[in-house]
Design brief:
This protein is mainly β and about 230 residues long. It has two helices and 14 strands, in the order ββββββαββββαββββ. The longest helix is centred in the middle third of the chain and has 9 residues. A hairpin with a 5-residue loop joins strand 1 and strand 2.
Length: about 230
């Protein structure tokens, strides 16, 4: 059965099992998930999916005026249509088989118990950005030699062109540029423990993004044998 949920990365820690082995884990907070809409193959959309909302939105209150949500009115209207009083900051759509839509109910909040310990999941997030980076940091180039007349080219990428034919830089050449800040999917991670009281999940291993970043947790596409 396929399913998905949004979460906020709290941070990494370590847990020791009954044999004394140290296990690196990541804690994610899943509180605030709400089902906004379900789309069916037989409906107007023509495909099956579920739309989820996550993250609090600040309500602007000023004396003498009506309190308003700090969110665009069309986006607030999406939640009002679904019967949800408080809108959410983040909205995402997850494709699911038609048979798996029954586990979702519009207007219902999802908790950590939506998943169970031992399930295999894929985690999608945005990696940490390093800004404009050189070829050594971005592509692991070894750099130029620092002897025999080398002059201020120690971290350069070297020649990037070709000979007289075709006399141009080929597409896809590894050069300096934006590093990180990209959509990353880590597959086949296992849920180590479900913290129902804290509405959080403990996932074995590392997931993309900084602490506080929003990630999507979905049932693993490639099942891994334990």
């Amino acid at each position: 059965m396929s399913k998905g949920i949004l979460a906020r990365k709290v941070g990494m820690t370590q847990i020791f099992d009954e044999l004394g082995n140290r296990i690196s884990v990541t804690v994610v907070d899943v509180s605030g998930n709400v089902v906004i809409e379900k789309k069916s193959v037989h409906g107007k959309a023509g495909y099956s999916a579920v739309k989820l909302g996550f993250g609090d939105v600040h309500k602007h209150e000023k004396e003498g005026t009506e309190p308003i949500w700090r969110l665009a009115k069309p986006r607030v209207g999406v939640f009002l249509k679904a019967g949800i009083e408080a809108p959410r900051r983040h909205v995402i759509e997850i494709r699911l088989p038609e048979s798996d839509l029954d586990q979702y109910e519009v207007g219902k909040e999802l908790t950590a118990e939506f998943f169970s310990a031992g399930e295999w999941v894929d985690v999608v997030g945005t990696s940490k950005g390093s800004g404009f980076s050189g070829v050594m940091k971005r592509h692991n180039f070894r750099g130029a030699k620092a002897s025999h007349g080398a002059h201020e080219v120690y971290r350069h990428g070297g020649s990037i062109g070709t000979s007289a034919t075709p006399s141009r830089v080929m597409p896809g050449k590894k050069m300096a540029g934006q590093h990180g800040n990209a959509r990353v999917t880590i597959q086949n991670l296992r849920i180590f423990r479900v913290l129902a009281d804290d509405n959080a999940l403990i996932i074995r291993g590392a997931i993309p993004g900084p602490n506080g970043g929003v990630v999507t947790i979905k049932t693993a596409v490639k099942k891994t044998v334990a």
